[in-house]
Amino acid sequence: xxxxxxxxxxxxxxxxxxxxxxSLPQSKSFGLKFNSLNHLKxxxxxxxxxxxxxxxxxxxxxxxxxxxLRASFASxxxxxxxxxxxxxxxxxxxxxxxxGGIGQPLSLLIKMSPLVSNLHLYDIAxxxxxxxxxSHCNTPSQxxxxxxxxxxxxxxxxxxxxxxxxxxxxxxxxTRDDLFNINAGIVRDLVSAVADYCxxxxxxxxxxxxxxxxxxxxxxxxxxGVYDPKKLFGVTTLxxxxxNTFVAQRKNLKLIDVDVPVVGGHAGITILPLLSKTRxxxxxxxxxxxxxxxxxxxxxxxxxxAKAGTGSATLSMAYAAARFVESSLRALDGDGxxxxxxxxxxxxxxxxxxxSRVKLGRTGVEALIPSDLQGLTDYEQKALEALxxxxxxxxxxxIAFAQKQTVAA
Length: 409
Ligand SMILES: NC(=O)c1ccc[n+]([C@@H]2O[C@H](COP(=O)([O-])OP(=O)(O)OC[C@H]3O[C@@H](n4cnc5c(N)ncnc54)[C@H](O)[C@@H]3O)[C@@H](O)[C@H]2O)c1
Prior knowledge:
alpha/beta, Rossmann fold, 2 domains, six-stranded parallel sheet, five-stranded antiparallel sheet, 16% strand, disordered N terminus, binds nicotinamide-adenine-dinucleotide, oxidoreductase, EC 1.1.1.37, tricarboxylic acid cycle, NAD
């Protein structure tokens, strides 16, 4: 029987200014639609909040005006009307490291996106079983498996979004830097192939240490002459997902509404949740700020220790990465209201790469959002200054690694 998409359950939605009661349009709801009308109606899915002040954006192309943004919201409303909320599956996504702990659930969640036409699963380990299994889900995308380096070119051809969770995970006692020597080489080689076979794709790096693997990827793409800083992302969404969850629990807030920007990097103290920018606004005691900040920074270790030697966060990571992929696809599809935190090339601080909220568009990062970094509390300002030396060292380590190993042009 043919699989007919039907209506109602949205797996990926984005909050918009409209959700805050403004007259701006409500976000569109993407989704796989299931037949039960009320079933899971309130499921928030891969939701990213996107309420940012229009006047506070800077972009690679200079400042955006409020008028330009309002125009983009208006065109979004027009687009929604035209689309009748039925997205077209038309994007190709590749997952590199798809047989792994993150790769498998991530691939499943991407298979649920109505925007994906082709899902390519690649691993050096056998990924045929994962692909066969996922391919039986009655959602629009075609799933193909690719095993081993010789199949990588075909995997990457014409792909729009490449997600990279390939590598080794952290074991108890290991720091993210311990992973460096293994994962640095894996990311270098995979990104080198991306440069050759899909140089225009959005490249989303999950492999740790993200603070170093993203600069490595940038150097490799530069060496290949195809670096576009707007299209290279370190996936830090898990930090935001954790911050939202922990803050909602602590302050007894409705989880779906909570949005905490997380800036800096993606390891230990370089992860800086900006609790003062929590939406809806919430007040915290000094003890709560310290406790929540430390918990968000060490949440990965919480999972590593609970898994007792069998790996690091995989399921929550897959959820977070799927949300980032979905946001990217919506941006590619012309949604003018997509914001996520990500570790990207940045001029918001004196560091060359920095995680902040960014506006995503068809060409990648359309704007970095500086407003979260304005009016920080003393605690946040001190934490920001304190994280810079460590983040700088990790970035430089990545750059040095890539520069001493010139990739074949
Ligand atoms: N960004 C984040 O927030 C975040 C969170 C958790 C884990 N991670 C990182 O994600 C990575 C993957 O974690 P995991 O738990 O899925 O590990 P895993 O060992 O379960 O899976 C990794 C997969 O990568 C594959 N792989 C290894 N080398 C490869 C290569 N050269 N090409 C293609 N595939 C290759 C392996 O065969 C395996 O299937 C680790 O580096 C981990 O530290 C990142």
